[in-house]
Amino acid sequence: MKRVAVYGAGAVGGFLAWHLARAGHAVSVIARGPHLQAIRANGLVLEPHGGKAQSLHVAASDDPASLGVQDIVLVTLKHPGLAGAVDGLKRIAGPDTVFVFATNGIPWWAEAGLDFLDPAGRLAAAVAPERRVGCVVKASLEVRAPGVVAMDTDSARFILGPGHDAAAGAASAAVAVLGGAGIETAQADDLLPAVWDKLMLNVGFGLPAALLDLPVGTVGRQPEMLQLRRGLMAEIRAIAQSRGVATTLPEEIAADRTILASPHLPSLLQDLRKGRVAEIDALVTAPVRLARFGGVPAPVLETLGAMLTARARALGCYDGGGTDG
Q1: By the 8 A CB rule, do 160 and 188 touch?
Q2: 223 by DSSP, 3-state: which?
Q3: CA 181 to CA 24: how far, in whole Å?
Q4: First to last CA, the chain
Q5: In terms of domains, do 197 and 317 share one?
Q6: Global pTM?
Q7: Residue range of the domain that includes 42
Q8: What is the pLDDT of residues 20-45, one digit of tens each?
Q9: Helix/strand/coil for 130
Q10: How many structural domains comprise the chain?
Q11: Do 279 and 170 belong to one domain?
Q12: Distance between CA atoms of 55 and 41, rounded to whole angstroms?
């Protein structure tokens, strides 16, 4: 049995916490507001796709210091929440604690020169290189109500890999725990191809949906969008190549029928609708800056990225410098 804390028990964190608790691990979740109150009162509820909701008790707190040192910390906060969590992460860290970061976009640990992803290097100072593990989430999950996590599809898959050359052992340890809990998990020696593949989908399908305030499938099925989407994805692929990363998604993914039938709202759009701070820097600013670093033309990404950044800022969901800050 491992002591596992889930820092940011939203949709992804709640899913992981539920399965780990069912497997018998000592699971604690760090949450706040109505979500925290509901978990304390009713347990953490998981609604499988087409299945019956089930509740499990997990320890829940808004004070990381009350939880003690953990064996594994699953950090499932979105990128804008990471900087504010540094002090809390320190309070539950021991010398051997493994940290798994499951975030969208370019990870804070992946690229030198993107200081805005880790302001003042606080995350790098708090989490030793040999304990940094990255995670790419392939799942459609949502918090349907406080304390209730719903699966929009039948499966959820998590790809883990070292966030530093020294962290291979930490990645293996985390994969063993998650896989042992019945969570579909894979390990990658190099996580960056999976990171850029996910970014290609987030940008190609999610960025236009967030701009148009429509579900992924609704936007994707419009005939005018196919060439635009192909252009966005080609630009992400070229930027990845300029960073020495070979993406694996086929070009045909732009017309994938399953995605085009999806009613899912991308995370960017969910944030904008709910007035939450959006993941602009990790999903838009970072790839645009990397394109400029490498001299890679990215006119579609530059244009749509500027529009989305402006929309998020106007809605009070972003206060960063953006691509030109």
Answers
A1: yes
A2: coil
A3: 8
A4: 46
A5: yes
A6: 0.94
A7: 3-189
A8: 999 999 999 999 999 999 999 999 99
A9: helix
A10: 2
A11: no
A12: 11
